[in-house]
UniProtKB/TrEMBL annotation:
Name of the protein: Crossover junction endodeoxyribonuclease RuvC
Family: Belongs to the RuvC family.
Organism whose genome encodes this protein: Kribbella sandramycini
Keyword terms: Coiled coil, Cytoplasm, DNA damage, DNA recombination, DNA repair, DNA-binding, Endonuclease, Hydrolase, Magnesium, Metal-binding, Nuclease
GO molecular function list: crossover junction DNA endonuclease activity; DNA binding; magnesium ion binding
Subunit structure: Homodimer which binds Holliday junction (HJ) DNA. The HJ becomes 2-fold symmetrical on binding to RuvC with unstacked arms; it has a different conformation from HJ DNA in complex with RuvA. In the full resolvosome a probable DNA-RuvA(4)-RuvB(12)-RuvC(2) complex forms which resolves the HJ.
Gene name of this polypeptide: ruvC
Residues that bind Mg(2+) 2: E68
Major localization listed first in the record, in broad terms: cytoplasm
GO cellular component, one term: cytoplasm
Cofactor(s) the protein needs: Mg(2+)
A Gene Ontology BP annotation from the UniProt entry: DNA recombination
PROSITE patterns to which the protein is assigned, alphabetical: RUVC (PS01321)
Length: 210
């Protein structure tokens, strides 16, 4: 599974592509940051984020996109920009037909470090170790994007398999139920046919006795 992790932000939007599967060490494919000028209009900055996301998806062809779930912060202006960038990432992925997963910061931290309260330094250190990188990914937005991708590879992959197993089980149960209904209908038809035959024979015998 190849996952594009997106750490949304209006000024800096972290991107990280990781490939792997549950139970195996993931491998980094690419990492980077989309930067937009603060002096530009918000709409233009979002257009730039959209265009670069399109390029990343076209180039790296991920199977899924993992985006950090936005939570309210003290700085309303910051959280609004983050939410806007997050929305753009989800729209770009959906337009391409890619599944989108939202992971909370605590989920990502727990998946990468084992603690949902880990700090950014600890997350960056563990991302570097997990991916066996020669140097720490910077800035923190890039490391967070890789952490998101790792989280989804490990957790999303397992969830996906569970969903597939559940779907397969539901299909088998529905098929068995349909076969049971068909068997009951055939049995009922056979009984009715037998009863009709017996009734006709009874009328024949009765008529002949007269």
């Amino acid at each position: 599974m190849r996952v594009l992790g997106v750490d949304p932000g209006l000024t800096r939007c972290g991107l990280g592509v990781v490939e792997g599967m549950p139970g195996r060490p993931p491998v980094m494919v690419a990492v980077g940051v989309i930067r937009t000028p603060v002096e530009d209009e918000v709409a233009q900055r979002l257009v730039r984020i959209e265009a670069e996301l399109e390029q990343w998806i076209a180039e790296h062809k991920p199977d899924a996109v993992a985006v950090e779930r936005v939570f309210a912060q003290h700085n309303v202006r910051t959280v609004m920009g983050t939410a806007q960038a997050s929305g753009v990432a989800m729209v770009v992925a959906a337009r391409r037909g890619l599944p989108v997963a939202l992971h909370t910061p605590s989920e990502v931290k727990a998946a990468v470090t084992g603690s949902g309260r880990a700090g950014k330094e600890q997350v960056t250190s563990m991302v570097t170790r997990i991916l066996q990188l020669p140097e720490r990914p910077t800035p923190a937005d890039a490391a967070d994007a890789l952490a998101l991708a790792i989280c989804h590879v490990w957790r999303g992959g397992v969830a996906g398999k569970l969903q597939q197993a559940a779907a397969a089980r539901a299909h088998l149960e529905a098929r068995a139920e349909a076969q049971a209904r068909l068997q009951k209908a055939r049995l009922r038809a056979a009984v009715e046919a037998q009863q009709g035959k017996a009734a006709r024979q009874g009328r024949t015998v009765s008529g002949g006795s007269r």
